[in-house]
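Sequence in, structure out.
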Amino acid sequence: MTPDLECTDLTKRFGDTTAVENVTFSVPPGSFFSILGPSGCGKTTIMRMIAGFLEPSHGDIRIKGRSVLNVPPNKRPVNMVFQHLALFPMMNIADNIGYGLRRAGLSRADIDRKVQEALERISLPGIGARRVEELSGGQKQRVAIARCMVLEPDVLLLDEPLGALDLKLRERMKVELKSLQAAFDTTFVYITHDQSEALVMSDAIAVMNEGRFEQIGTGRDLYYRPDTAFVAGFVGDTNRWGGRIERLDGDSMALRTDTGMILRGATHGRAFAVGDRADVFVRPEAIRISYAEDDLSQFDNRLSGRVTSILFDGAASRVIVSGADGPGEIEVNLPQSGEFAALTKGAEVHIGWASDQGNCFAAGAR
């Protein structure tokens, strides 16, 4: 099956600065693909090259199997939703949605029909006569998407469109955007620095860093089986320790941390040698907490410590434990059973986790 979007060896240089370097990826038809990375990593540059606002220094961009190099933006089968939406305040909602159709020369009857169909799809029928300022933030988002989708692009590009929304609306719009993508059955390419947005909505995610893709995979792949230390540290919360490898046994390893503590982790097929410096990453939810040390006897990593901070966030509450064995501060997710509802700062606790929950990477690795 021909991908809706395919980028090969995509590179963009600005003078001596390389913003994007040899990026290759493809997006299957009807999928939701996200590019996730910190500010300045090059993700917006990729978006602008796909849209035609920038020409690549090297590489190719193909949409539905056809190269769009040197094709101007208004001739490409793509459309773009910007962070600030760019709706026209002097027009009502129907005129906003039908703007591109009027420029394309469609008849008034066809424009009216397509606008009404779009309003139905975004679950806002009957608001065509309303003004932009009468809409909520979420409704404006849906209208901006409808304005793009009536033109039936092969690919819709979304440049951090939730960034200007408040937290509660942003959480709701994650679900709505995924539903809209399914309703229009159009390929979405979404860029964001917010890992939660990417994990919730995407069929596949590319994690970007310093102009290159570190890993492409599902949210589950990136979270549980990161390919690089950068992905392990960037996607989700994690605890990280550095040290030297003291022992290797198949896929297991023992790391003596810089504070002298021994931690056991898994290499997951990566090549190491005894004496190598390495980092081990452990997710806060992989660590079990208990008042009794005997409750953790099944774990090959066990530590004792004292609660130094409690971060209450409802079902996502966490504690910071300062280990008596010198590992520094450790972030631990609290179970939702209510067992630790009365936990207080200064309480003595025990924590433990299995070695296969620790992802190990060579120190200094990307």
